[in-house]
Amino acid sequence: MRHNKKFNHLSRKKGHRDSMLANMTVSLILHKKITTTVAKAKALRIYAEPIINRAKKDDTASRRQVFRYLQSKQAVSELFNNIAQKIADRPGGYTRILKLGNRLGDNAKTCFIELVDYNEALLDANKQAPAKKTTRRSRRKATAKAEEAPKAEEAAATKAEEAPKAEEAPKAE
């Protein structure tokens, strides 16, 4: 039975899977964006987000715990020095997965996985675009306009009837 066995094994044994996810996490921290398959990206998100979350508390114990997973001094220093400052106020959700399509060779679903606060294109777009004013749509306004339309047609019809009468009156004089 598979009770509480939810994570994806990615067709690898535990040692291979752990080292692959650690290497992918190091690449994600150093490059801020990597391209991979959707299955690996979902597994990477589960692996990397708790590690990134530990960087909020910058002390020796946290650095040692993160280094135990990553085994890269450069990635640990990048994580604690630069990334931790950007994610300090974020409660979670440090990564974003953007699907790309299928790979040509084996038709695998591919995607980008990136750190949320480092996508300059989206950050610039959010700063430049003003917040749209939302409008509420209610059914009353729609029914009120529908009721006004027949009234307007009736008013136009009565004006059309009055116009010939006005023309006939001067001819009689």
From TrEMBL:
Residues 133-143 have a biased composition (Basic residues). Residues 127-173 are annotated as: Disordered. InterPro entries: Ribosomal_bL17 (IPR000456), Ribosomal_bL17_sf (IPR036373). The keyword Ribonucleoprotein applies. GO terms for molecular function: structural constituent of ribosome. The keyword Ribonucleoprotein applies. GO terms for biological process: translation. One of its GO terms (cellular component) is cytosolic large ribosomal subunit. Keywords: Ribonucleoprotein, Ribosomal protein. Pfam families: Ribosomal_L17 (PF01196). Residues 144-173 have a biased composition (Basic and acidic residues). NCBIfam families: L17. HAMAP family: Ribosomal_bL17. Part of the 50S ribosomal subunit. Contacts protein L32. Belongs to the bacterial ribosomal protein bL17 family. This is Large ribosomal subunit protein bL17.
